[in-house]
Structures are given as structure tokens and as C-alpha cells.
Amino acid sequence: MRILIVTQYFWPEDFRVNDLATELTQRGHLVTVLTGQPSYPSRNLFPGYGRLRPWSQRLGDVRIKRVPLASRGRGQGWRLALNFLSFAASASLLGPLRARGGYDVIFVYEPSPVTVGIPAVVLKRVISAPVVFWVQDLWPETLTATGAVRSRVVLKALNRLVRWLYHESDRILVESEGFIPHALSNGAAPEKLAYVPNWAEGSYRPVDLPGDAAERQLVPPGFRVMFAGNLGVSQALGTILDAAELTREYADLHWVVLGDGRQRAWLAEQVLTRDLSGTVHLLGRHPVEAMPRFFALAEALLVTLKHEPIYALTIPSKLQSYLACGRPIVGALDGEGARVIAEAGAGLCGPAEDSEALAQAVLSLYRTPPDELAAMGRRGRAYFVKHFERERLLDQLEQSMRDTSEENRCVS
User: Fold this and answer.
1) Domain topology for 2-199+389-411
2) How buried is residue 401: exposed, middle or buried, by Cβ count under 10 Å (0-12/13-18/19+)?
3) What is the CATH number of domain 213-387?
């Protein structure tokens, strides 16, 4: 197939769509990616990139066509809105020129914002190719949950946009079964819908040798509870700090945070203000290839989300990576994510934003014999293989694109 992927984020930014695009080319498909200049999660464009350069790149056999966009700035307010809208506008206006040619299907990767679907629909009209829309985030609910938007006028406009995008899409894939009622309530036809969860990249697996020498030096000895990923409002990072305060008397119990995001500066300031420097360790962002080695240094992997209805519907993508690496998991989250941890028997979980429950869960794991912790990790890995195995889910995505393309040809 000739596949056009529309995504605001792509390599060298670290998103699962990188793995998808590369794998599709390895399966013999011709893949072009229409994307913006990379900046996530930084304030500015990555070094070596400008608003108008480079226009074209390659990642292996994947052709990359870039369009200009406004940088994220602090990743909030009008600056973030400008970042979202600038990509939607430039990809809609320049996309037909940048990604010209015939395509069998247009695939939309939507972790956020939903506006990434606008240029896909424009391109659908121009090149007469069907759209497969992979929903990773619920809009506008995610904006109200984070407090980013409170205007009823804006929220109403976004609701209309979502309904229009779902109506125009030929197939809608959702990363969580909890998203299906949302899609139906926004006008998606039931026959268009399918559940395809996220996977973990092939590098996420149990490793025998935890960390190289430099990585081992970064992580303190003792019982390590490790959080990895985006440091944003959705992650309820205050819950981690509160739980760390409740466990600070255990001198060998450490909370290790890997990642970056708009809450990182606030988190660092809070660690100092609360005198938690000996308990909470902020190690910054590291390559995705290093994550399994870091995870092997942890006694438990941590996942947290805000206490909001939207997040109860979500399976945080880090959960698949944690399960794949075969380490015990401790969580403070509701709904689908908590269900997965419990169903897998991979660890312990308390309610979202309940720091006392999180502290008690961590202390329970702290007192658990190593062989029982290892058994939790093995159960998590087995659950991952059964439900989130990469090859099977890639097969599903590929088949969804093929079916949509063939249905479009039949209609034409």
C-alpha cells in the first residue's frame, strides 16, 4: 500500500508512530509522513531545525515531509494553542504540495491535539483517499481535565470539530475500550469503530544486565520506585511528592523520576522546597533505548494520573512499556489503567491522587520478598504478551488500513 501518515509529532521526537511507520516500510509498504518541525517536549525547535528547514528527510525507508509550525514555548496557554493551530493550518495548506502523489490510505496518529485530523480530511478531499483515525486522547475532555480551557464557546467549537472529524473518518481506532462510548456519543458510526491498543517498542523487554556504568551511577542504591515519561499536569506529580514525604523515614526507599515536560521546573522546585532531595531524584530525559536498562534497576515502576473521569477511560501508554519489561508496577490511577494492573496481577494500585494509598502500596512492595516481586513482574510480562504484543497489534493496524483502502476502491 501507499500510506500517508499525518501526525504533528514524528522522529526525532519520541512517539510510537515512529515505530509504526518504520515497521510498515519493512512490511513492503511505501510510507510518507506529513509532520511538523520537531519541538516536543522542548520549548523551541530541536537543534538543526528551523521553520523552513529541513523540508524533507528520511528515517530508513520512511519519507518525511515537514511543514512549518510555531514552537511550543512553555507548552501552555496561547503559545500551545498557536503550536496546534499552526500545524493544522500549514499541513492543510501545504500538505497537498508537500505530500503530493497517489495514496491508498491516510492514517492519522492523534495523541493530542485532535486538530491533527483537519489536514487529513483536507487531503482526503484532494487525493480521494480514505482516512483511518487512531484516537489516543479524548478532546475536548482532556482540556477541561487539565484546566487548559474553560471557555464554553471554545469547548463547544471543539465538540463540533470532533464530531466533524469522526464523521469524515472512514475508520476510527481507539487505544482504550473506554473510549468507545465517547466516540459513539460524538457521532461515530458503530461499524467504523475498532479497539487497537498501544504496544511497547521491541526494545522494551526484560534485560539481564541492568544499566551501564553511567546509568547505574545515576540511580541510588536501595529500594527504587521509578516513574518514566511526560512530566505534565495529567500525571498528578504532586501525588508522588506527597507520598514521598510520607515515606521519607525509610532512608533506603527512593523515588526516581525519568523524563521531561512542562511540570519539570515546578517538580524540581518542590523537591527543594520540601527538602526531598535525598528521597526524590530527578534524572531528566534519556533515550528510549535506555529505558529497559533503567527499569531493570527499579524494584517497582510507577504510574500516576489525575482524578478526572477522562483519565479513568485511558490506558496510559507507559503501562504497556512497564509490563513488557517484567517489573512490578505500583499505581495511583482509576479505571482502565487500574484494571489492567489488577487483572495482570502485576503489582498494587490505589485511587488517583490518593497519596496515602500510594505510600501504603509502595511500603507493601518494600516489605515484599524479592521472589514475590519477581513473580509480579513475570505475570505482568505474560499479560503484555497476551494483550499488547507488538506484532499482533501491528497486524491489526495494517489490516485496518488495507480493509479501509479496499472498501474505498469498491465504493469508487
Assistant:
1) Rossmann fold (3.40.50)
2) buried
3) 3.40.50.2000
